Amino acid sequence: MLDLTYRPRRLRTTPAMRALVRETTLQVEDLIYPLFIVPGTGVKEEIPSLPGQYHLSVDEAVNMAKEAHALGVLGVEIFGIPTYKDEQGSSAWDMEQPVQQAIMAIRKEVPELVVVSDVCLCQYTSTGHCGCVENHEVLNDETLPLLAKVAVSHAKAGAHMVAPSDMMDGRVAAIREALDEAGFTNVSIMSYAAKYASAYYGPFRDAVHSAPEFGDRKGYQMDEANRLEAMREIELDIREGADIIMIKPALSYLDIVREARDNFDYPLAVYNVSGEYAMVKTAAAQGLVDEKRIVLETLLSMKRAGAKIIITYHALDVARWVR
Ligand code: PBG
Ligand code: ZN
Description:
Layout: H1 15-20, E1 31-37, E2 44-47, E3 50-56, H2 58-70, E4 75-80, H3 98-109, E5 114-119, E6 133-134, E7 137-138, H4 144-157, E8 161-164, H5 171-181, E9 188-195, H6 202-208, H7 228-240, E10 244-248, H8 254-263, E11 268-272, H9 274-285, H10 291-305, E12 309-312, H11 315-322
This protein binds ligand PBG and zinc ion.
């Protein structure tokens, strides 16, 4: 029981005192930096919907990966824009495409960096959906072997970790089996285990041209009202073989993060998504908030909620600020 003579302010008297009793820290070792790879060479173009983020050709992505590594960032997550789209999304497992080429180049040029790849079909299908489509329906089981092919192609290129973001049922098991069969038993899976059908992905879809051509993603991504279902999704992915579980988006879902941390003893990641980033950048550009302070406070809240890994577009800035 708390003694009524206890004065909380005693432990807030100096910066050193506050640091001694600080319960949570944000470190550069927590961060993964997303990269957007486009065709061509010498391309480094700012993404209009994500100020401060770039469309990068493979050579420029290597430079960015070097910069991230020099700042102490431990990992990058690779997203891509392919040169062609079709119904199946076959450019997603084409070894000549920007993603596979970038994975190879970064592994070669920045060997210490952990290379994570996003596994999904929506940037690659002509429908913009995360699976194959028949009569305006996104099919589940027919999509699984395609996702497995994508994951294996990324592993062949050298990815340390694949991160399936499609939310089809059973995809972690399908990917694990395919990776193991191809000999990639050491390639790990970070599953977007509880991924909500969120409005916060808007700027990302503009950035990678992946908005669905019809309908929405509510038939596969989670209903934002559901908490218990998130626990079932996470349990399933763990049982199917996920090594790291992720919750996405981060900021509006910190209750889910806390509950996941309390229920599962697996490494826990959050994705601080494009809409969260864009809101902060817009408010900061207008002088409404102090960007550095608001970013550090926001990311710290994700750590406090129980996440270890934070995938964030702020990674390079944060790395500079917390060194
Ligand atoms: C693709 C994918 C999305 C994001 C990551 N992978 C968008 C979506 O599901 O529509 C969102 C990332 C962000 O908003 O920063 N499945
Ligand atoms: Zn997708």
